[in-house]
Design goal:
13 helices; 32% helix; 2 domains; binds ligand PMT; 402 residues; Rossmann fold; six-stranded parallel sheet
């Protein structure tokens, strides 16, 4: 059985699709999962706790405390118990509460305290599903690192036809099974990622930096963590923080600081990804006081920074994998290939500033990946999450044969 020993906390909310939770529960139990259920108060209008308790062979919770017995349901323990918190169906109302951190029932309290991965399967009417508020809330949950099982299209309870139907329980089961399979791929592996920009101080109020948002590095960190890896991110100031319980973050400012912290973690990492945009030069002297405006021109002398990827490439251990990036504006392939060689990378991801939707700040990227054995592949413009998954797959398949 595919889900043997897996602990699944199933959340059920007030939606006409709540009846499908019964079938879903049955499928999960048949595959060997241990299931506990939390219902929102309005879910009780659609399906009874007795039905779900019978099918799950486990408890069904819907209130913080049972006034008759005085027994309190510990939402923190429920979140700790679960390997996966699956909310199916999730209504527009509960979705909005999750997105805003509202905590007014057992289900929402458990969501806020859950340490395990969260998967949500929305169900609502066509126009509700299309509403920008709902779209924004779904995106917010995705940004929190939650997995969204998009609603399916078809006939809706209102009689309308379109997207909004709860994903069929059989399809949800496939996603759950796949999730558990994938979550093992990098189990026990340590991944070290540099991400975001560095800041090189000029004086106490000014610095030299670049446009890196940290989106690419965050996507890579989350992609590895979702496959079971133990991820450490060395993150430049102000860069996007990845979200996943398997990720530890160390925030740094300058290239020198990024180097020092990265170096500490390098020797125990199995895979290192150098996604940060590191300043190549830094001011020779940092003024101790704010530099005052005076002449029409001023000069700052810059000196070379440490090249983190190059320095650690020299210390690479047997079996350790180094993934580099190249951000170029001209002669892209030549520069990427020479960095692959010079910095001792196993593969390098080239993004060019000449490609629309690629590089700094965008949610998307368009990359070419070059491997040591001379093979390469090029993507279309994809969401950075998709690019990250591709990079993770390339690392998994090393040495590559395409
Ligand atoms: O953060 P986003 O807004 O999402 O943008 C993503 C990105 C454009 C920053 C990312 O995709 C990317 O290309 N990162 C590397 C940017 C860069 O500095 O490239 P480079 O060609 O200058 O450097 C080559 C490699 O050496 C990189 O792996 C870089 O991290 C590393 N390097 C460079 C200089 C230095 N002093 N130390 C380094 O480790």
């Amino acid at each position: 059985m595919h889900l043997d020993g897996k602990k699944i906390l199933l959340g059920v909310t007030g939606s006409i699709a709540a009846y499908k939770a019964a079938h879903l529960t049955r499928l999960l139990v048949k595959e060997g999962a241990e299931v506990q259920i939390i219902m929102s108060t309005s879910a009780l209008d659609f399906i009874t706790p007795l039905t779900l308790a019978t099918l799950s062979k486990g408890p069904v919770h819907h209130q913080f405390a049972d006034s008759a017995t005085g027994v309190w349901t510990n939402h923190v323990e429920l979140g700790m118990w679960a390997d996966l918190f699956l909310v199916a169906p999730i209504s527009a109302n509960t979705l909005a509460k999750f997105a805003q951190g509202i905590c007014d029932n057992l289900l929402t309290a458990t969501y806020l305290s859950a340490k395990c991965p969260v998967m949500v399967a929305p169900a609502m009417d066509l126009d509700m599903y299309l509403h920008p508020a709902v779209k924004e809330n779904l995106q917010r949950l995705a940004d929190f690192g939650n997995i969204i099982l998009e609603a399916e299209s078809g006939e809706l309870a209102s009689g309308l036809n379109g997207q909004g139907r709860l994903m069929e329980p059989e399809h949800i089961l496939e996603h759950v099974t796949q999730f558990f399979q994938e979550s093992q791929t990098f189990r026990g592996k340590k991944i070290l990622i540099t991400s975001g920009p560095t800041q090189e101080a000029i004086d106490p109020v000014r610095f030299i930096s670049n446009h890196s948002s940290g989106k690419m590095g965050a996507a890579i960190a989350e992609a590895f963590a979702s496959k079971g890896a133990d991820v450490t991110v060395i993150l430049g100031q102000g860069a996007k923080k990845p979200h996943h319980t398997g990720i530890k973050i160390h925030t740094v400012r300058s290239a020198q600081e990024m180097y020092e912290v990265t170096q500490i973690h390098h020797h125990q990492a199995d895979i290192c990804v150098f996604a940060a945009a590191v300043a190549d030069y830094t001011p020779k002297d940092i003024a101790t006081e704010k530099i005052k405006k005076s002449d029409d021109q001023m000069q700052i002398t810059l000196v070379k920074n440490v090249d983190i990827a190059f320095a650690l490439g020299k210390k690479k251990k047997q079996g350790q994998i180094h993934v580099g990036f190249a951000l170029e504006t001209e002669n892209e392939v030549f520069h990427a290939k020479s960095k692959l060689e010079k910095k001792n990378f196993d593969l390098i991801v080239l993004n060019s500033m000449r490609d629309q939707g690629a590089g700094f700040q965008y949610d998307t990227n368009k990359v070419s990946i070059f491997f040591k054995n001379g093979k390469s592949l090029t993507t279309d413009t994809l969401h950075k999450d998709e690019v990250a998954k591709l990079i993770v797959d390339c690392v998994k398949d090393l040495p590559i044969e395409i």
